[in-house]
Write a structure and sequence with these properties.
116 residues, mainly alpha, 5 helices, extended
Length: 116
Amino acid sequence: MEDEGIDTADTTVERGSGNVFADLGLPDADAHLLKAGLVTRIDAIIRQRGLTQTKAARLLGLSQPDVSRLLRGDFREYSLERLFRLLTALGSDIDFVVRPPGSSPGRLRLAGTGTG
């Protein structure tokens, strides 16, 4: 079946950088990507444990509406430190690794072994 009404002659595809925040030209794009990764981990742990937002809120020291906003991606006002604290409240261990400088600029990166 052929698509009708879609003109692909002028369509170009551009490969992203791997960081949508940088691709959108937002400041502090690396930090935004890191925060998004941390919130994704928080969400995965909550789901894995079968916690309601109310139970998660009690564990995290937040209100249920705050948990809802956080899990919907409204985490701009959260610092990295606060997100780390939320993960540790859920029982996650967090390790920081600082490597010697290389030939390219430094970067922030989230690595891990899963959700718990």
